[in-house]
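Record 1 of the preview.
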Amino acid sequence: MSRAFVKENDERPEEIMARPISARPNFVTAGGLKQIEQALERYEAAHTAAVAKENRTAIELTAREVTYWSNRKNTAIVVSEPSGGGQVQFGACVTVRRHGGRVQTLPIVGEDEADPLAGTISYVSPFAQAVMGKSVGDHAQIAGAESEILAIE
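->
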């Protein structure tokens, strides 16, 4: 049968795989939890619309997202803002002087809220792992070069 006679909403993807869920603790900031809740709301609404349109592909894709974001919401561990202490920790905003003099400031956040293009990084990233537990004036190996921690907020 020609594909021209198949309704679009009858098409079925080859196989929709579940989104992988990190085995690491799901630490989030308060803002990160809000982002998760908003994503869940968006996908629940999209799923409802897909069901109403009887679009099987959209139903499966949105169901996958609802499952992922529900899991992330249910396993979220909200970490309060750092109270100081002078060491880099989850939720801190750390400023470093990279090799070559470039100064970079990055907040360390949860996996789902991290967006390197927007200037936030996950606590499991190599950068975060290199600076965690360090204090102002300490040095860390980042991308194979020594960097100095200038500030922790």
